[in-house]
Design brief:
Elements: H1 2-7, H2 15-18, H3 20-23, H4 34-40, H5 48-74, E1 79-81, H6 87-96, E2 100-102, H7 111-122, H8 127-135, H9 138-151
Parallel strand pairs: 1-2
Helix pairs in contact: 5-6, 5-9
Amino acid sequence: MREAIEDTGSVFHSEVEQMPELYIGRECDIFGAGESLKREYGLENDSFVTGLFKLRTLSIELMMPGTIRWLRAINPGSVLYSPVMNGNAAFAAEVLGIPSVALLPNAGPGSIPRFFADLLRMSHMTEDMFVQEVEGFEPHREAVARLNAKYGLDFGLLTNMQ
């Protein structure tokens, strides 16, 4: 992918290189280092959706230092990001006072709640069960508190999940 990007005259930035706090000692996957984190936190038996969301805040916490360093290095006038895949970019932009705009790469208005409901159904969970699982996961609660304290964010227990 790097070659194709650079052939257009653009600059390729490797997320893995920019975010060592997340990637060093962990395997890369479609959701950052999700499978490695699932093993680290003993969540191998959790469903895809609960494991993903229990670890989402921890992943963002690990991404923040690298994302902030990268944004400072490139000094953008604004940040365009995917809220589904790169919510960390919005939080880092907020910390640095850079305007940000979400690019919604989904199938239109209202599609995310329907998709989420389908994920819950496939996981044999109700929304209440899911909320209880995520809110009750202590490492998630601790990561929320650390993000808020360190960066002055108003990160809730279910941020980006509502």
